[in-house]
Design brief:
0% helix, single chain, five-stranded antiparallel sheet, 2 domains
Length: 243
């Protein structure tokens, strides 16, 4: 005769199979600067104390030595770039963000692509005053950097002097100081630049303690147009200071 026991231990369970899921997940934004996602196939390559492992988890952060690591402390691998920005794609190395100061580079050139309104009224270029908005038709400003990484404001102005003809000026500082006449900017009947599109000039060197040094700059206007639309002016510097 058998007796039923209500507290008998079960006979256990058995794992049927292990399945791997590699399909594309939903990409969302986070407030972590180093969080990344792979759109498509691929894995992140990580170094686990010298051993290479792969992961699809793109949550990374900086440790106290500047290494890019995941939550387990494994370091993210990638292609390194030299001081000139040339990437070596021959091999991967652990990625590290330098924590020390990088020597700054002074701004040497400014590139721009404006539209200057062909329907603007002409103004007397001889009366140009950077502090009087009635004496010019369009203006913009851009930060430039001296050899120590100091930030300074450089302003560019355009005065329409005739049909297809504009005069470009620059002025340094905020408020703007004594202006420099950069020269004529002219356009053909199709609204394209006609003639020179590069202007060389100097501004005070903010890193010179004597106050007499100058910093050479080049303004490149390649791509600037003169169409019958509102003037749109914006600049970007070609070189940046240290982080």
């Amino acid at each position: 005769m058998s007796t039923a026991i209500n507290n008998q231990i079960g006979i256990g369970t058995r794992l049927a199979e292990v399945q791997q899921q590699f399909s594309q997940g939903t990409i969302t934004t986070t407030n972590q600067a180093l969080d990344v996602a792979i759109n498509g196939n691929g894995f992140y390559q990580l170094s686990n104390n010298g051993s290479t492992v792969y992961s699809g988890n793109g949550v990374f952060h900086l440790d106290n030595t500047g290494k890019i690591v995941n939550a387990s402390g494994m370091q993210l691998m990638g292609f390194a770039a030299d001081s000139k920005g040339v990437v070596n794609s021959a091999t991967t190395v652990p990625l590290t963000v330098p924590t020390s100061n990088i020597q700054p580079t002074a701004t040497k050139s400014i590139t721009a692509a404006f539209n200057l309104n062909s329907q603007d009224t002409n103004k007397d270029k001889a009366a140009f005053d950077p502090n009087d908005g009635n004496t010019y038709n369009a203006s913009t400003s851009v930060d430039v950097y001296d050899s120590l990484g100091g930030t300074h404001t450089m302003n560019v102005y355009f005065t329409k002097s005739g049909t297809g003809d504009w005069e470009a000026f620059s002025a340094y500082g905020d408020p703007a100081g004594t202006p420099t006449d950069l020269g004529k900017v002219s356009f053909d009947n199709s609204g394209n630049l006609n003639g020179t599109s590069t202007f060389n000039f100097t501004i005070p060197d903010g890193a010179d303690p004597t106050g007499v040094g100058t910093q050479a700059l080049t303004l490149k206007l390649t791509g600037t147009t003169q169409y019958g639309a509102a003037s749109r002016t914006s600049c970007r510097t070609a070189t940046r200071p240290a982080n």
